[in-house]
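Researcher: For the annotation table, I need structure tokens for DUF2093 domain-containing protein. Please keep the output clean. Sequence:
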Amino acid sequence: MLMAQGRPARLHYMANNFRVLAAGDHVVCAQSGARVSLEELRYWSVLRQEPYATCELSTRAEHAA
């Protein structure tokens, strides 16, 4: 999807996967604001529906909740 390059995707996060709701090539980490490409996205919260750049940031968000 060439038109989606450089644009953030909108995703629905599920337990073991995510569904693309709006095309894009990355998401923005809810903790750090870092861009995370969809190919590298491994951490998210199903409950809060937000992505994280690293395991550490995901854990920090979980403990803050």
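Researcher: And a one-line annotation?
Model: The chain is about 15% helix and 30% strand.
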